[in-house]
Amino acid sequence: MKASHILVPTLEQATTLLAEATPLNFGQLAMQHSSCPSKARGGDLGEFGPGMMVKPFEDATVATPVGFISQPVQTQFGFHLIHRTG
Question: Rounded to two decimals, what is the model's pTM?
Answer without folding.
Answer: 0.96
